[in-house]
Task: inverse folding
């Protein structure tokens, strides 16, 4: 082994990672083009012969090392791998077992190590705990556990003989790995490539050469599941010969069968999603969790690694949403990440730091009256105090970290607030209308007024309806102008081609004399039904005969609320050029996700785009609706909705498609409607007068005069002759322009470029023009929006 490093010192080093029970070295070859430099490269690991009597893979891995080193200068695939991957290969991981008969022979080789322990049952197990075999960790086990702990392997394989199959996770339990489709894909690639170069009888068992581990036979304490579960390293097991020890004459053939597949598998760690995660201000790398939302389970997520901050996430092709989170930083979710097989998608991420970040989750957010919910703290920071408020819950408050069994006894939509503190500072998050508590409505002869409920047949949530039933039930909206929506998530009645046996009839109105929407039976679900009647009501008539009953239905009852459509125009002082606004940030520097998810806005909306949709986009803005009688009373408490939007160079505020001059909110106005527009480094602005509807749209133009903004000339400024705009220079977004914006924001960022809060002119560069042309003339000015700093009271409903 050491001769490899002597012969190829520029790309290979050989080291001892530990010792066996009897003191034999566990030798590892590390192959890469930059042995002394940490690079943005994935690490790959091959190990062989955990069972000392399975001699085949020992020889194959020795030859693989030799093949990679001798072909580096001539083979483009190998050159690409060595230049872009850190390859680790350990041909023999149980030398005591292999040389049990003496150092000069493999006769007498044993499966176990010198202590009689099967090393492939000696690792911590995700199901059966740290010592599933009842034995202490062996020196060989500890050496490889330390190796995994001290490195960041993306992909690995452990090689055996005694069977012929590619074995993919899991071994310990029957449930499938989150990446089961990817595992099948790479396992099939290995086996299918072998089939091109091997006899038809080789690697042809199981599912034509591959198998899920549990489907073959279950083991506990295996290296494969240990690496997948405890180190987020994707490892499978290669069984490459039915005979544990092949005659020497057959080894070249087995090399020929397998070496291309072995190289292809190494190459897989270059594919999928990868990138670098860093601090948004300092640019320093961060250790962060990378989680695929709605996909990752059982430790299938990955982490970035220092000193580069790089992460590597092999994944089967598809469209994914990734959440990036790190201690002391605000989490960020990026949607619509497209992956294709055997290609690389690069997603670099900047996270915004925060000393304290409040966050939490709930065991359920949709429950019936009388049910309970458990809450889990997900906050960041050195937290010593937790203060919870559960609107509508019992108890209504808590100071424990993870409150359990919070009971909701009344229907409604309830907010949850969490304030965390480190003893000096605090941070608060409120999720408005987070918990939905429903009344259960059972089919009967009645007239119900509600906008929130679960509607069942007479059997309720779990039983069947009965024979001989005839019921009529009408649902009315709580508020005039709203319309009842019935969304059926489950439906099963006795079937008849004409629904002559059991049937549900739905009428568009207050009784069975209204228009019939449809008659339903069998599994022909009504789906989603919305009233179009001027009363907004729906009526349901159910009939069952004297034979056969079924589970019936489950329907969510809600109300359609009239929409508010806005047509807004506003200018920003910083990028204004005398005619319109510059779009210098577009597209390279504009984020694809709304940037208002941090202090002071704490907006939790998920607006995002795959690409900036229009070359005229200047930046993101945050729109806020306030509902009150007078502008002076339009504080944050009157907020009824928020939404992130794009601002075009002509001042138009548009939705995510980048073209429509409208933003749509789904809420109800009970007083007058005022609109607030926030920007990340300009003072917020609010309409001076209520918005009025014209042909179904609420227009408002801030640019036409001083009196268009609340506060007049204090609320915005004339940035051109007769043209008014939002005041620039509020780098820390605290609604006051002062020395802190210059010293703590502009000065820190001066000389740098990017999407930065100190770039008041929004030309990508933070330089003297930001300070002299924007900040200095405005120093001392403050925002005029009542209750300047918005709180997280409402998350608007953004139409899908």
Result:
């Amino acid at each position: 082994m050491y001769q490899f490093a002597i012969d190829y010192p520029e790309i290979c080093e050989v080291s001892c990672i530990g010792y066996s029970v009897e003191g034999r070295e566990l030798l590892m070859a590390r192959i890469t083009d930059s042995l002394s430099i940490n690079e943005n490269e994935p690490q790959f690991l091959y190990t062989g012969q955990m069972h000392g009597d399975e001699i085949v893979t020992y020889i194959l891995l020795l030859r693989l090392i030799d093949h990679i080193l001798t072909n580096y200068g001539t083979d483009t695939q190998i050159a690409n791998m060595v230049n872009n991957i850190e390859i680790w290969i350990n041909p023999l991981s149980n030398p005591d077992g292999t040389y049990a008969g003496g150092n000069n022979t493999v006769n007498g080789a044993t499966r176990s190590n010198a202590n009689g322990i099967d090393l492939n049952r000696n690792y911590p197990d995700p199901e059966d705990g740290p010592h599933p075999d009842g034995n202490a960790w062996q020196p060989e086990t500890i050496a490889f556990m330390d190796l995994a702990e001290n490195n960041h392997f993306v992909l690995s394989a452990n090689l055996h003989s005694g069977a012929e199959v590619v074995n993919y996770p899991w071994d310990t339990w029957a449930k499938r790995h989150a990446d089961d489709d990817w595992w099948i894909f790479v396992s099939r690639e290995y086996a299918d490539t072998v089939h091109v170069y091997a006899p038809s009888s080789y690697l042809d068992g199981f599912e034509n050469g591959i198998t899920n581990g549990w489907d073959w036979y279950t083991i506990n304490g295996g290296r494969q599941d240990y690496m997948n579960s405890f180190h987020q390293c994707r490892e499978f097991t290669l069984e490459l010969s039915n005979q544990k020890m092949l005659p020497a004459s057959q080894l070249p053939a087995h090399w020929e069968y397998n070496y291309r597949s072995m190289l292809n598998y190494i190459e897989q760690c270059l594919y999928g999603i990868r990138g670098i995660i860093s601090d948004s201000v300092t640019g320093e790398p961060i250790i962060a969790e990378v989680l695929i939302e709605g996909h990752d389970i059982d430790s299938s997520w990955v982490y970035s690694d220092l000193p580069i901050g790089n992460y590597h996430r092999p994944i089967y092709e598809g469209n994914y949403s990734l959440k990036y989170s790190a201690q002391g930083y605000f989490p960020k979710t990026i949607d619509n990440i497209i992956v294709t097989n055997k290609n690389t998608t690069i997603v670099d991420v900047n996270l915004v730091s925060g000393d304290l970040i409040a966050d939490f989750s709930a065991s359920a957010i949709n429950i019936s009256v009388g049910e309970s919910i458990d809450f889990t703290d997900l906050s960041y920071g050195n937290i010593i105090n937790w203060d919870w408020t559960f609107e509508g819950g019992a108890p209504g408050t808590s100071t424990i970290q993870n409150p359990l069994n919070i009971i909701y006894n009344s229907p409604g939509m309830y907010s949850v607030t969490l304030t965390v503190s480190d003893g000096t500072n605090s941070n608060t998050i409120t999720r408005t209308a987070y918990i939905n508590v429903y009344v259960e409505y059972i089919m009967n002869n009645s007239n119900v007024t509600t906008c929130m409920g679960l509607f069942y047949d007479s059997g309720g949530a779990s039983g069947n309806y009965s024979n001989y039933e005839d019921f009529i039930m009408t649902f009315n909206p709580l508020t005039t102008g709203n319309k009842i929506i019935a969304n059926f998530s489950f439906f099963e009645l006795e079937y008849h081609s004409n629904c002559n046996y059991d049937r549900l009839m739905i009428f568009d109105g207050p009784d069975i004399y209204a228009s019939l929407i449809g008659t339903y039976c069998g599994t022909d679900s009504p789906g989603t039904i919305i009233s179009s009647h001027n009363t907004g009501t729906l009526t349901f008539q159910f009939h069952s005969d004297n034979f056969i009953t079924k589970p019936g239905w489950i329907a969510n009852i809600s109300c359609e609320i009239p929409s508010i459509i806005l047509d807004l125009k506003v200018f920003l002082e910083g990028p204004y050029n005398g005619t319109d606004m510059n779009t210098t940030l577009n597209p390279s520097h504009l984020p694809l996700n709304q940037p208002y998810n941090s202090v002071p806005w704490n907006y939790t909306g998920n607006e995002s785009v795959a690409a900036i949709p229009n070359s005229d986009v200047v930046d993101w803005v945050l729109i806020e609706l306030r509902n009150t009688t007078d502008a002076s009373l339009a504080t944050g408490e009157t907020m009824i909705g928020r939404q992130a939007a794009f601002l075009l160079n002509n001042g138009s505020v548009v939705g995510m498609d980048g073209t429509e001059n409208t933003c749509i909110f789904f809420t109800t106005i009970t007083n007058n409607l005022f609109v607030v527009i926030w920007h990340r480094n300009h003072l917020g602005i609010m309409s001076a007068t209520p918005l009025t509807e014209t042909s179904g749209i609420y227009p408002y133009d801030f640019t036409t005069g001083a009196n268009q903004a609340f506060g007049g000339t204090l609320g915005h400024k004339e940035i051109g002759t007769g043209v008014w705009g939002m005041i620039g220079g509020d780098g820390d977004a605290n609604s006051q322009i002062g020395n802190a914006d210059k010293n703590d924001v502009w000065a820190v960022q001066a000389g740098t470029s990017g999407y930065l809060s100190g770039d008041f002119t929004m030309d990508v560069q933070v330089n003297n023009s930001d300070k002299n042309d924007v900040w200095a003339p405005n120093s001392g000015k403050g925002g005029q929006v009542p209750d300047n700093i918005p709180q997280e009271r409402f998350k608007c409903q953004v139409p899908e």
